[in-house]
Specification:
With 160 residues, the protein is of the alpha/beta class. The protein has a single domain, classed as Purple Acid Phosphatase, chain A, domain 2. Helices cover 16% and strands 30% of the residues. The chain has 3 helices and 10 strands; from the N terminus they run E-H-E-H-E-E-E-H-E-E-E-E-E. The model has no long low-confidence stretch (mean pLDDT 96).
Amino acid sequence: MVLSDTHLHPGGRRRLPDGAYRALDDAEVILHAGDIVTAELLHELSGFAPTHAVLGNNDLDPALAHLPQERLEVIDGVRVAMVHDSGPRAGREARMRRRFPDAQVVVFGHSHIPWNQPGADGQLLFNPGSPTERRAQPRHTLGVLDLEAGKVVSSEIVAL
């Protein structure tokens, strides 16, 4: 399961939607592309499945300071890069290929705009959107990647 831009504040009233919790129940691995905001959420996610996250521009909680700006994980043989902000839409495909030349998938967030498109040389660019702050998007969303034996079997943006 892939999340980004959850923006959950400690003691706040907002929580992940019920649909996100249903998806978490089925998750084998959780990727969070930043703007977690509170370490409590990261701890909660790790109770569902192994969780990998990167630091977002709103992750000011000192308990999140250990998170890297970017990371590369190998999940079921697939090289998955993670970064919060992929930069402007123009030139994204070439920029992500240069930044993560060995990645088959680049997971990013920041814009809250769901994105599930091939990039340069077949690299998958994947932004799950936000399950809590849709901004100008029609729905709250999260992402699901099915990775198996070194291949991306499927990638899906799930509306909540």
